[in-house]
Structures are given as C-alpha cells and as structure tokens.
Amino acid sequence: MRRESAAEAQLTLARLRAMDVPARLITLTDLTKGPAMAARARKARYARMVQACQQAGCVDLLLGHQADDQAETAWMRSSAGSGPDGLAGMGWISHTPDVRLVRPLLGVSRAALRNTLRAAGLAWVDDPSNLDLRAERVRVRFALHESGLSEQFWCLAMDAGSQRMARDQVLGATLARTCAFFPHGWVRLGGSLPDPAVLSGLIRTVGAQQYPPAPAAVARLCGRAGGTLAGTRLARWRDEWFLIREQAGVAAPVEASPGVVWDGRFVLRAPSALPRCGVYVGAAGYGLERKARAGWPALFCAGLPALWWQGQVVAVPHLGWCGAQDWKDAFFEFRPPVPVTGVGVYGCKKVHDRNYVGPMG
Q: Is domain 62-175+342-361 given the CATH code 3.40.50.2000 in the classification?
C-alpha cells in the first residue's frame, strides 16, 4: 500500500536478527485497490498472521496496540453511544477460534515507547496515514492530545473492562445453570426465557455475529415470545425454548474440503480427500425425511450443515445420517467466531506508582 513499506519491513527483520529473534517476512500479494481497502487489508493481514501462527504451532498472536490506542478506542466508542462492554475497549487477551490475541503494551504510552527507542539509540518509522485527518481515529488522536484527556479515557476503558469481566463471570455461571449447548449450533434455554442481556450473547454466538444485537431488539424479541433476530430463531418445542439458526440467513454453499468453514460457524473435518468431486457444503434445508431428522423438527434441521453432491443432500453428520458409506467419516465442528461470554482479559490496576505507564496527556 506504500512504497516505503518493503524497506521498513527489511529494517525490522535486520533489527530482530541482531537481537537473535527468528523472523520471516509475510507478503500480501492478492490485495486489489478499491473501496474499503484499508479494512480489507487489515482483515487479510490478520488472516495471514493467524495462518503463520498455526504453521508454527503458536497459541498466541501478540499485537502492538498501546495505551494511546486504547484511549482513542474508548473515546470513539463513548462518542458513538457504545454500551458498557464496548467501553472496555480492546482486551489485553482476546480469544478467537484459532489463536489468542494478546496485547501486552496496552499499559504503555506512545511517548514511553518512543523514549525507550531513544534510550536504545534506535529511530522509528512513522506511517504517514497516522497524520491523515480524513480518518476518524487520527482526528480523535489529535483531539485527545490537545485536550489532555488521554489518561482519562484510558482509565475509563480500564474501569469498564474490570466491570465487563465481572459481568462475564456472572453470565458464565448463569449459562452453566440454565442452558444446554448442542454441537448442532443450538442452545436449549429451558422452560422460560433468560434475561435479555444473556439472550443477546447467545444470539451473537448462534448467529455467528461479531457483535451482539441491540438490547432493545432483544427485549422486543422476548416480548413477542418467539421470532427471528440477527440470523437466529427463538422457537418453542416440547415446552422448552430453543435458540437455533435461521435457515433463511445462512451462508451460500461453498466447495467442500477438509478445514473449510461454512456459515462462519462450522468447520468441515473430513478425510484428506472426499470421495467425489463437486461436493459442496450448504444448509440441509427442509427436504429431509422425518426418519433422517433423528426426532428433531424440520425447522431445527433446516439450517444444519450438510454435504451436497449433484443437487442432492448426501450427508448431514449432526443427525448421524449419510446416503452412502463414502461420507460416513465426515463431520462438522461447531466453532463460532465469538463465544457467548467474552472470556477475555480487560481492565487493570491503575495505581500511580513507578510502574505506571499509562498514556500521557
């Protein structure tokens, strides 16, 4: 995206090698110019870094976000009317289906990092995009610097983060007592509906959403005693409530291969080669016979992942059904992008002692 980036990457490699830190360069070659290029580039960078972690057997991916970044995030989310979870900003540790994202520098200010480099006799590289006032974050950065409120918003994020972790702990205990999770991607809620705050997290996970739906929308769903929201359906069956995937909102079919992710939630685990070419993963739909549904309603089964070949469903592993022995070893792992509870690490001790390195106004 910038001509200088190649030289900057080589500089980084040289410095790491001088410190005996093994390093290799990852290059993105398939980015195309066009709308939302920065967002697409960010997504591609994360995907390649996660892939590199998996290849190296790394559990943690360390990121360089620092304290001023956290203050900027808190300011933007506060200005946007974010809820209490959003005000917690970025987590010190965040879980994804593939790796843990660890941000060890969230308590270290940009000024402290630069002072460290000066003391080491090292120059640093400034990305010119950090001065582009067309970007909201850059405008917020300048506003925080001029107002001297960086530390205040950093502390806001730390306090909100501590409160979020306390809520997550209560939520986890509530879910353990009242809900049952199925590998099918369903949740049994019991005879009565949970609190809307609990249901909101469940909807995010079952619907494979990055963010939970608005509290008001969840409250309306509970008031209607059933219906759809954010790709999920609240359904009553055998005197109990279930939260299932809404079949109309599932992803389009994808070509089947071991490890492919469908609908953002299911990973296909299969032999190294499927028995026939032209196999696709898609929703099972409403065409399954009663005996193939293992006693479950057609409404529940319609959104399940299935293997399709020549326009026919040949296997629905969650139901233990397959049309031929060729497909019997394939199964789908339910792996939503976000868990119901945050299970991350937010907030920290904010004591102004010699170890305090929060952002400077």
A: no
